[in-house]
Amino acid sequence: MRFICFSMLASLFLLTSCATVQVKSDYDTKAVFANYKSFGFYKTGIDKVDINDLDKKRILRAIDKNLAEKGLVKSNTPDLLINFTTKAEKNVQVAPNYGYGFGWGWWSPFWYGNNFYNTYETIEGVLVIDLIDAEKNELIWQGIGKAPLADGPEAKTERINEIVTAVLAKYPPEIEK
């Protein structure tokens, strides 16, 4: 019974730990974030991102929506230029295999099985969002989000929205005075 409970808890931990978005951010401590009221996309940089156009549109829409919710207005003469990059990373997780067999236990000469550990591979997407001061052409804020990728149009849209929302939750930074 303990084995079953432990296996269920371990599986639940693996599933929930994979679903969360890991976020990091950095910013220019001299930037006055209250001065930035409008944004536009840095087309030259975004055109170089090596992902399909469908995912690119999903990311752009999610960023647009999140920044609008923060009170920034999309403009042809923006205060902020928004750029992003992406990459995919293979993540390998190893979990104990309490497996199968017969006999008196894993030390038994009658034990069978091909290994004592299970490995799980997931592909994690990394999204880096850069906010650039349009006047100075300087990076003032960067957010990085990392999460497992999803399959299918609805699942991809939902996951991208989740990642962008988690990353942009760090903007503007809470600066201690």
How would you briefly describe this protein structure?
It is built from four helices and six strands; from the N terminus they run H-E-E-H-H-E-E-E-E-H. With 177 residues, the protein is of the alpha/beta class.
Present the secondary structure layout.
Blueprint (H helix, E strand, L loop, with lengths): L1 H18 L2 E6 L10 E4 L1 H5 L5 H17 L3 E2 L5 E17 L20 E17 L4 E11 L4 H16 L9
Helix pairs in contact: 3-4
Structural account:
With 177 residues, this protein is α/β, with parallel strands linked by helices. Helices cover 32% and strands 32% of the residues. The chain has four helices and six strands; from the N terminus they run αββααββββα. A six-stranded mixed beta sheet has the order 1-6-5-4-2-3. Helix 3 crosses helix 4. The radius of gyration is 22 Å and the shape is elongated. Residues 1-18 have low confidence and may be disordered.
Spans of at least 5 consecutive residues whose pLDDT stays below 50 are 1-18
- Provide the spatial order of strands within the biggest beta sheet: 1-6-5-4-2-3
N-to-C span:
55 Å
Q: Report the sheet with the most strands, covering strand number, pairing sense and barrel closure.
A: 6 strands, mixed
Helix content: 25-40%
Give the key terms.
32% strand, alpha/beta, 177 residues, 4 helices, six-stranded mixed beta sheet, 6 strands
